[in-house]
Amino acid sequence: MTIATNGLHHVTAIAGDPQRNADFYLKTLGLRLVKSTVNFDDPGTYHLYYGDEAGRPGSLMTFFPFRGAPRGRQGTGQATTTSFSVPEHSIGWWYRHLESVGVEVGRIQNRDGEDVLTFRDPDGLVLSLVAHPQGDPRAPWDNGIVPAEHGIRGLHSVTLSVSREEATFGMLNKLGLNLVSEQENRFRFAAADGGPGSFVDVLVTPREPEGLVAAGTVHHVAWRAPDQPTQATWRAELAESGVRPTSILDRQYFRSVYFREPGGTLLEIATDDPGFTADEPLLELGRALKLPPWLEPSREQIAAGLPALNLPAENNPEELPA
User: How far apart, in Å, do the first and last CA atoms of the chain sit?
Assistant: First the structure.
């Protein structure tokens, strides 16, 4: 196998009310809405993408918000925690900030030499902020809501919960990830040279029930491919090894291939290109509803069925920080 992902591309989850979702990720976590579009497979609901100022791969958390969606159940066969990277000195600031806006937070823990602060979003999705002792060179979205010195740098890791580990370990190895640490029933794998944005933790919980994907749970986890030819090669290698990947799908801002790892979690390989400025300027990212060409004839009908989203002015400043 020649597959060697550089790390996480994005994590996609299910939410309930879209305005509540946007308020939390924009105002509480200080991310930027870099694309407002729809679920291409179910255009009656939004697909909202949050990330750094340009929505770079590795910074992205995305949502399908279904109004009135029932709560899901976290369990095996899912990504059960999504973690963001923050500066090492910022965990205390985040603890106070989250408490001040009414978010219930757990105690700060130290795991693998990293401080970890765990909490839930308004739909119950489990999130954590992680401070890596070697730091994270990625720049935050400097929006004036969360101070840049404390801002989220991007994704840090995801945690997959499985009832049995061997087959999942094998799949991660196929993707080019290697086991780098082990603590009781938690196993950390890293892509490339490791560091924030490259990690996946496998939590082995044989007595836990299977998860149920609905509001407050992760739908899928995407890994990076540098370009479309590389993605096509990797897809062919997965198919030859007995995995059943989908065809390559056009998601406008990247190309996608989906498949399930043996533990049950839906995975994706997503290309780094073409990116979110493919159909709107950097300054205007997320401001307007963007549709793929095949849905444009139905724009009026689709837009009428979607609730309005009120975005803070900081999402689209007149100038971006230098």
Answer: 41
Give how many domains the chain has, as a whole number: 1
DSSP code of 215? B
**CA dist list (Å): 281 to 122, 224, 271, 301:** 31, 23, 20, 25
The pLDDT of residue 1 is 67
Q: Would you say 127 and 84 are in contact if contact means Cβ atoms under 8 Å apart?
A: yes
DSSP 26: I
Structure tokens at 256: 């996608």
Please provide the average confidence, as pLDDT, over all residues in the chain.
96
Dihedral over Cα of 96, 102, 107, 113: its sign: negative
Backbone region of residue 119 per phi and psi (left: phi > 0; alpha: psi in -120 to 50; beta: other values): beta
| 3 within some domain | no
2: in domain: no
Q: What are phi and psi of 167, to 5 degrees?
A: -70, -35
Would 245 be classed as within a structural domain?
A: yes
Paired residues of 210 in beta bridges: 76
**52-67 pLDDT per residue, tens:** 999 999 999 999 999 9
- Identify whether the C-beta of residue 159 lies closer than 8 Å to the C-beta of residue 201: yes
Query: Which domain range does residue 45 map to?
Result: 8-315
Residue 269 pLDDT: 98
The answer to whether residue 321 sits within a structural domain is no
Does the pLDDT of residue 322 top 70, yes or no?
Answer: no
Supply the CATH number for residue 124's domain.
3.10.180.10
Q: Which residue has the tokens 């899928």?
A: 220
265, amino acid identity = T
pLDDT at 73 over 80: yes
Look at residues 72, 84, 20, 28 and name the one whose alpha carbon lies nearest to residue 46: 20
